[in-house]
Amino acid sequence: MRRYGLTILAIVVFLLTVIPSWLGLYSGYIQFLLAVIGINIILTVSLNLINGYMGEFSVGHAAFMGVGAYVASLVTVSLFGENSLLGDVNLPPALSLLVFPVALLIGGVAAALFSLLVSIPSFRTRGDYLAIITLAVNFIFKSLVENVDAIGGPRGFMGMGGVLRVMGGVADIPWLLIWTFLSMVFTIYIIRNFVTSTIGKSVVAIRDDEIAAEVMTVNTRRLKIIAFMLGCGLAGVAGGLHAHLLGFINPSSYFLLQSTLILVMVYLGGIGSISGSIISAIAFTVLLELLRPLDLFRWVLTPLLLIGLMLFRPTGIMGDRELIDIFPRLKKYFVPAEEIITRAPATD
Amino acid sequence: MLLTNRKSDAHVTIDTFLQHLLNAIQWGSFLALIACGYTMVYGVLLMINFAHGDIFMVGAYLGFFIGTFLLGGFALRLPIELPLWAVVLLTLVMTMSLTALVGVTIERVAYRPLRKKGAQRLYLVITALMFGLLLEYGNLALLGARDRQFPQLFPKQVYTFGGLTITNVKLMVILLSILTMVTLALLVQRTKWGMAMRAISYDRLAVPLMGVSTDTIIIMTFVVGSALAALAGVMYGTAFPILSYDMGLLVGWQAFIAAVLGGIGSIRGAMVGGYILGFTQVFVVAFLPSTYRDLITFTLLLVILVVRPTGLFGVARRTKV
Amino acid sequence: MIKAQRFALLVLALVGAAVLAACQAGGGGGDTIKVGLNLELTGSIPKVGEHSRVAAEMYAEEVNAAGGLDVGGKKYNIELVVEDNNGTAEGAAAAANKLVTQDNVLVLVGPNASVAAVPAGEVANNLATPMISPWSTNPNTTLNRPWVFRAPFLDPFQGPVVANFATEQFGAEKACVLFDVASDYPKGLADNFKSAWEGLHGPGSVVAFESFTTGDQDFSAQLTKIKATDCQVLFTPQYYSEVPLIVEQAQDLGITLPIVGSDSWGDPQLLELCGDACEGFFYSTHYAASGATGATKEFIDKFQARHNEIPSDVGALTWDSMQIVAQAIKNCGSLAGSLEENRTCVRDGMAAIKDFEGITGTMTFDEQGDPIKCAVIVQIQGGEAVFYKSVCP
Fold first, then answer.
1. CB contact under 8 A, C42 and A295
2. CA distance C343 to chain A (A)
3. Whole-model pTM?
4. Is B242 close to C272, i.e. CB distance below 8 A?
5. Lowest-confidence range among A81-90, A194-203, B164-173?
């Protein structure tokens, strides 16, 4: 029972979200929100790896998300889109079901490679230099896309809606929601295992005391680069989903505002807590939607609420604890992270 | 064809080059002034005060209200008409003090309680981001979506030297910024407050032991930093007289980048960083396709940081083992 | 530990309650027609959303005060459901989804900015709900989307209009362009102007094609570069928050070129903020507020009485969009069917609109849902935009 606790939880969530959407029990708006929540969970949990477990300060998550969004969209639209870039490819529609997840993965890999470019210089030093470099990455990504007219420049890129229609034509199930759900589960699974593995523990050790970690033969720079690439790659996957959800992307969608929102969700949930990130991604997304009727005052009230929360709980909702640490009784149903036995090889 | 083009370019180069130089000094002055505020707070608190760009916006708006009021632009007026120099001086002094009050209020209401609770410093950064949003949207909610026109505090003059033109506003911006920054550098070098401020960034535990109140120094830092932002705001409003609620956003982020470029925590670095960023932006536009401005500027910045990871004037913090 | 448990429980309970509250479906039906407004009330152009909202509310109140909209002999009141889209793609898609599937509106009006209208159009088209954008000029908004319409003319029409006008008016052969490269509308129009100008005067006749980024206020570097060229006219398709600064800085640098603008200049704030500096300049737009007659004059007076400001072009276009919506519903003949049937019927009614007399001109929709209508060239005289000439396709 305990071993399968999380699997059962995942199945229950699947039954409560994807299945009713398929049956048409949820309105399009609820389905849209569910997808947004899923994407935000991926973004928050993956940034938490960098800013929380690793103790760095990355301000450029939106840029990596944008790389994934553009790359994944270019792949799917050029193969299955209406205004195809490669001319008419005429692939069998059924193939789109396979191409879509592969495109998401390619987007993630592209974002990870892009982050490698950034991380090689930035992890030579400690401190807030990652902040400035990732901040500059926001500007560079936006300016770069604006100067490529082939992908629409500032006018944006579209055609992802057509891809989803092709997929819907093969089998009428909520493909995007399913893939969002699977990516979310994948992200949580991989990050949870990463931070409980020997590598992950080394990452936390770097945060707590970099010099001590180095003395204990941890190759800090290489580890930081690996963790950073993992976090950014997952942001790229989220970007691919986001692009297909909206059916339209433009460079300013992946700029400072989006980066700020992801940052807020991470710190709201508590750094170093996966369950905190999940709760805060849900709470923040739903809160912003609920405050819709306030129009303008939504953007006055939200920061006020968050400042109040910070003063009340200066470590975010969960601090660096997991839900299971606060409710010990949950241990009956779930295996706590520290009990996971890992066979990951020690580094260097 | 290419040759003739080049020739006609060469013909205008001297005047145009000097004009670009002037433009760059003005733009760099703004970035440098705002960057000083970032760098001072960082030096003392090791905290990136992301609300600083919005404090600059608040300064510009307060300057708008005070200036317009003093010039008799509102229904409620002063009984007497003030001479122009008095208007300028009063606007500057009142705006700077009120903005300093805003900065200190934020420190007292949000940052200090968080520090006392022992919050991790990155939570302070997020709180600062939230305060920035709050100031922006508070402004939008209070004053509406209309853009405001900054009052003309003194009549504008345009001087022409051959192909070179300069306005008295531009001159004022450049001279006043440089004067202010020199004063600031002296303050930090010579006064007790300045010494204490530098001491805190050197060793935060030893300073209270020397009988210096850390809280007082922090308040002073916020007063000076916010007043500088207000000065920049009033001058910015005079030079570019259209105010909108999100005017501090882009300038603020860029000034932060300038501060890091110079070496965050170093006041001299912030000034130099501001001018370097300003010069790069202007000269990329001048000699390269302007659509690539941000791409080239920020890539160059990355290259500088790769070569000098602590910025131009930053000192690598030695970690004791 | 107990305290932490209590707090965590509180948060979980709040999240749960919030999720449930978000799931509450909105009702519908009765003798009202629900029109969804998807507007930029916050974000970088809140003024656009504000004028759009005022014009739409004014129209709805007027119709309701007259007893409602007469559809096939039955009177219906118009109920507006307003959603803010924050001027972003995600905000617009969320608002459109909410309006269509949660609030069950019959038809959507807005968004105005193309960055919001393109993704919202995708949602409306997928969910088979008619939508009309009062202001979006990006061709992608309506491209291959039978359910999406718009009220303004498009950039590929406006660019040549301005290029032809500047050529005739100033006898210019070389032009300079200054635009915001990060913003959808200025970039699109600048490109269209450039290709039209080079079509008229040959390649290389646009001697400076300079850009800046949204939020910039110092344009002196770009203008200094423009000053060093030999162009005879400067085209700048920018908004009211930038044009006065561009004009002032150009004059400070000693640039005496005539400056020509586009429909984004058509905001009363531009005239107010620019003052004497803009005197004598021309721009192309949808309608001329000053010297307007008939229905247009009536609209301007009503708007001013209500909001104390001269309506911007987006206000006038929203009014026209509301009229088009009303006309489409009337064309439909009856709203007795299900919501899906009514939406289809209204879409067909909208596509069938011919020679519609709006306050921004006469329009007929082409097969893409774009109107075929005239542009107006106005000149700024004495702080007012005065009609100069009209250019028809």
1. yes
2. 16
3. 0.88
4. no
5. A81-90
